[in-house]
Specification:
By secondary structure, the chain is α+β, with helices and mostly antiparallel strands. 28% of the residues lie in helices and 15% in strands. It has seven helices and five strands, in the order E-H-H-H-H-E-H-H-H-E-E-E. The strands form two sheets. A three-stranded antiparallel β-sheet has the order 3-4-5, with no helix packed on it. A two-stranded parallel sheet has the order 1-2. It is globular, with a radius of gyration of 16 Å.
Length: 152
Protein backbone atom coordinates (compact mmCIF):
# COMPACT_ATOMS: atom_id res chain seq x y z
CA UNK A 1 0.00 0.00 0.00
CA UNK A 2 1.15 3.52 -0.77
CA UNK A 3 -0.64 6.33 1.07
CA UNK A 4 -0.41 9.82 -0.39
CA UNK A 5 -0.57 12.26 2.52
CA UNK A 6 -0.11 15.97 3.10
CA UNK A 7 1.34 16.56 6.59
CA UNK A 8 0.30 20.22 6.60
CA UNK A 9 -3.37 19.18 6.58
CA UNK A 10 -2.94 18.23 10.24
CA UNK A 11 -2.14 21.86 11.05
CA UNK A 12 -4.76 23.25 8.68
CA UNK A 13 -7.37 21.24 10.58
CA UNK A 14 -5.92 22.16 13.97
CA UNK A 15 -5.63 18.43 14.65
CA UNK A 16 -2.06 18.85 15.88
CA UNK A 17 -3.25 19.79 19.34
CA UNK A 18 -3.88 17.76 22.48
CA UNK A 19 -7.58 18.73 22.25
CA UNK A 20 -8.37 18.77 18.52
CA UNK A 21 -10.59 21.56 17.27
CA UNK A 22 -11.09 23.10 13.88
CA UNK A 23 -12.45 22.07 10.49
CA UNK A 24 -11.54 18.36 10.58
CA UNK A 25 -12.73 17.46 14.10
CA UNK A 26 -15.75 19.75 13.71
CA UNK A 27 -16.75 18.10 10.42
CA UNK A 28 -16.13 14.42 11.23
CA UNK A 29 -15.99 14.38 15.02
CA UNK A 30 -13.00 14.12 17.36
CA UNK A 31 -13.03 10.30 17.48
CA UNK A 32 -12.75 9.95 13.68
CA UNK A 33 -10.34 12.86 13.45
CA UNK A 34 -8.12 11.08 16.01
CA UNK A 35 -7.54 8.31 13.43
CA UNK A 36 -6.60 10.66 10.60
CA UNK A 37 -3.08 10.92 9.18
CA UNK A 38 -2.06 7.57 10.65
CA UNK A 39 1.52 7.77 9.40
CA UNK A 40 3.18 5.58 12.02
CA UNK A 41 0.42 2.95 11.83
CA UNK A 42 0.75 2.81 8.04
CA UNK A 43 4.52 2.29 8.33
CA UNK A 44 4.14 -0.33 11.06
CA UNK A 45 1.66 -2.16 8.80
CA UNK A 46 4.22 -2.30 5.98
CA UNK A 47 2.81 0.57 3.94
CA UNK A 48 4.72 3.40 2.36
CA UNK A 49 3.97 7.10 2.50
CA UNK A 50 4.35 9.76 -0.12
CA UNK A 51 4.22 13.26 1.29
CA UNK A 52 3.28 16.35 -0.66
CA UNK A 53 2.05 19.87 -0.14
CA UNK A 54 -1.45 19.97 -1.69
CA UNK A 55 -0.58 23.41 -3.00
CA UNK A 56 -2.31 25.91 -3.09
CA UNK A 57 -4.21 24.69 -0.02
CA UNK A 58 -1.01 24.45 2.04
CA UNK A 59 2.54 25.76 1.84
CA UNK A 60 4.99 24.27 -0.66
CA UNK A 61 7.72 24.11 1.99
CA UNK A 62 8.57 20.45 2.53
CA UNK A 63 10.65 21.38 5.58
CA UNK A 64 7.51 22.32 7.47
CA UNK A 65 5.95 18.97 6.57
CA UNK A 66 9.08 17.14 7.74
CA UNK A 67 8.97 19.06 11.01
CA UNK A 68 5.29 18.26 11.52
CA UNK A 69 5.60 14.56 10.65
CA UNK A 70 8.51 14.13 13.07
CA UNK A 71 7.18 16.22 15.98
CA UNK A 72 3.43 15.69 15.75
CA UNK A 73 1.42 16.25 18.93
CA UNK A 74 -0.68 13.31 20.11
CA UNK A 75 -4.35 14.16 20.49
CA UNK A 76 -6.07 12.74 23.59
CA UNK A 77 -8.00 10.04 21.70
CA UNK A 78 -5.28 9.29 19.18
CA UNK A 79 -2.39 6.89 18.90
CA UNK A 80 1.05 8.49 18.55
CA UNK A 81 1.56 8.90 14.80
CA UNK A 82 4.81 10.88 14.71
CA UNK A 83 7.55 9.46 12.52
CA UNK A 84 11.30 9.20 13.05
CA UNK A 85 13.02 12.05 11.19
CA UNK A 86 14.49 9.62 8.63
CA UNK A 87 10.98 8.40 7.73
CA UNK A 88 9.66 11.97 7.52
CA UNK A 89 12.44 12.79 5.05
CA UNK A 90 11.82 9.56 3.10
CA UNK A 91 8.18 10.64 2.74
CA UNK A 92 9.40 13.47 0.52
CA UNK A 93 12.25 11.62 -1.22
CA UNK A 94 12.68 7.85 -1.56
CA UNK A 95 9.06 6.78 -1.08
CA UNK A 96 7.57 9.10 -3.74
CA UNK A 97 10.27 7.90 -6.15
CA UNK A 98 9.14 4.33 -5.44
CA UNK A 99 5.48 5.29 -5.92
CA UNK A 100 6.24 6.74 -9.36
CA UNK A 101 8.32 3.67 -10.36
CA UNK A 102 11.46 5.83 -10.49
CA UNK A 103 13.41 4.54 -7.48
CA UNK A 104 16.27 3.50 -9.79
CA UNK A 105 16.61 7.10 -11.05
CA UNK A 106 15.78 9.39 -8.13
CA UNK A 107 14.90 9.67 -4.46
CA UNK A 108 18.35 9.19 -2.94
CA UNK A 109 21.93 10.39 -3.26
CA UNK A 110 23.96 7.79 -5.15
CA UNK A 111 26.11 7.56 -8.28
CA UNK A 112 24.00 7.54 -11.44
CA UNK A 113 20.93 9.02 -9.77
CA UNK A 114 19.34 12.31 -10.86
CA UNK A 115 20.95 15.23 -9.07
CA UNK A 116 17.95 17.12 -7.71
CA UNK A 117 19.02 18.16 -4.21
CA UNK A 118 17.98 20.61 -1.52
CA UNK A 119 20.95 21.58 0.65
CA UNK A 120 19.93 22.67 4.15
CA UNK A 121 21.69 25.15 6.44
CA UNK A 122 21.85 22.57 9.26
CA UNK A 123 21.70 18.83 9.87
CA UNK A 124 18.06 18.25 10.77
CA UNK A 125 18.81 14.64 11.74
CA UNK A 126 21.27 15.64 14.49
CA UNK A 127 18.65 16.89 16.97
CA UNK A 128 14.87 17.26 17.04
CA UNK A 129 13.64 20.18 14.96
CA UNK A 130 12.35 22.82 17.39
CA UNK A 131 10.26 24.91 14.97
CA UNK A 132 9.10 24.49 11.39
CA UNK A 133 11.13 27.55 10.43
CA UNK A 134 14.32 25.74 11.54
CA UNK A 135 14.40 23.77 8.26
CA UNK A 136 16.12 26.30 6.01
CA UNK A 137 17.19 25.66 2.41
CA UNK A 138 20.65 27.00 1.60
CA UNK A 139 20.66 25.92 -2.05
CA UNK A 140 18.71 23.87 -4.54
CA UNK A 141 20.29 21.89 -7.34
CA UNK A 142 18.10 20.75 -10.23
CA UNK A 143 19.36 18.62 -13.10
CA UNK A 144 22.90 19.20 -11.89
CA UNK A 145 22.58 23.02 -11.89
CA UNK A 146 22.28 25.36 -8.90
CA UNK A 147 18.87 27.03 -9.34
CA UNK A 148 18.57 28.65 -5.93
CA UNK A 149 21.03 30.03 -3.40
CA UNK A 150 19.83 31.58 -0.15
CA UNK A 151 20.54 35.28 -0.01
CA UNK A 152 20.78 35.70 -3.78
Amino acid sequence: MIASQQPMHVVLGDANQALPKGPWPDAIGPERASRAWAWKSIREGGGRLTFGSDWPVATLEAGQGIWLASTRVKADLAADQRLPIQDAIAGYTTWPAYASFEERRKGRLAPGMLADIAVLTSDITAAPIARPTDVVVAATIFDGQVVYERGR
